[in-house]
Amino acid sequence: MSTKTLKVAKAKKEERIVLSVNNLAIETQTREAENIADGINWAVKMVSEFLKRELTPDEVEALFENHNKFIDAEIMKDAQFPKAEVSFNLMAQGIDPTIYTSLCGICKKNFIKLDSVKLQDGQAVVLYDVIIERHTSYIQTELQREAYEIAEKLLPLVTRLKELNIAGEAYINDALKVIGADGYDNYEIRKEYIHGLKMRR
């Protein structure tokens, strides 16, 4: 790929124009992701307390992927009876096996995989950018881009026509669909209309 082509591709990527943002969906999925991250971190804390030590980031990853197997392996590392069941070894240490069963249940319930939550340095964190990007619409087609560029040029002209009382709102809205009133007696580019153009050829 030539240097000129790379520059054009980079420019197009940087010129992404937002047409709509679904704030309600962003807020809803942000709360969901934060709850899931909190649940994961709480489950990791419970396992750490059970094992009586802090887990390394790699161990948290292993716990998240194979929680029961990881816990079993940790218990059996220094087991007094390596050939016996996990529950037997726990009782031999004076630990109620139901605590282990409950812990496995906590991990199963809280270790939920979500593309907007990831493990980072042993902690579950929310990827807010992923959520925002998912619910943000950009110009995608040449038709949308051309309509937007035309609207940008028309906007100051239409605004001036209104200031001169030459064209009224009804006429402008009917004649120029890419320009509309914003509800405060001003004109703006109608992004929702341009967004709908992606369905047209």
The structural domain count equals 2
Oligomer: single chain
- Whole-number radius of gyration? 29 Å
Spatial strand arrangement across the major sheet: 1-4
State the helix count: 10
Q: Would you count the extended β strands for me?
A: 6
Strand content: 5-15%
Global shape: rod-shaped
Overall residue-averaged pLDDT value: 85
Distance between the termini: 29 Å
Structural summary, described in words:
By secondary structure, this protein is mainly alpha-helical. The protein folds into two domains: about 20-135, no CATH class; about 140-200, no CATH class. The protein has helices spanning about 5-15, 25-50, 55-65, 65-75, 85-90, 95-110, 130-135, 140-165, 170-175, 190-195, and strands at about 20, 115-120, 125, 135-140, 180, 185-190. The strands form three sheets. A two-stranded antiparallel ribbon has the order 1-4. Strands 2-3 form a two-stranded antiparallel ribbon. A hairpin with a 2-residue loop joins strand 2 and strand 3. It is rod-shaped, with a radius of gyration of 29 Å. The two termini are about 30 Å apart.
List the helices and strands and how they pair.
Elements: H1 3-14, E1 18-21, H2 23-51, H3 57-65, H4 67-77, H5 86-92, H6 97-110, E2 117-120, E3 123-126, H7 128-134, E4 136-138, H8 142-163, H9 169-175, E5 179-181, E6 187-189, H10 191-196
Antiparallel strand pairs: 1-4, 2-3, 5-6
Helix pairs in contact: 2-6, 2-7, 3-4
Compact summary:
With 201 residues, the protein is mainly alpha-helical. It is built from 10 helices and 6 strands; from the N terminus they run αβαααααββαβααββα.
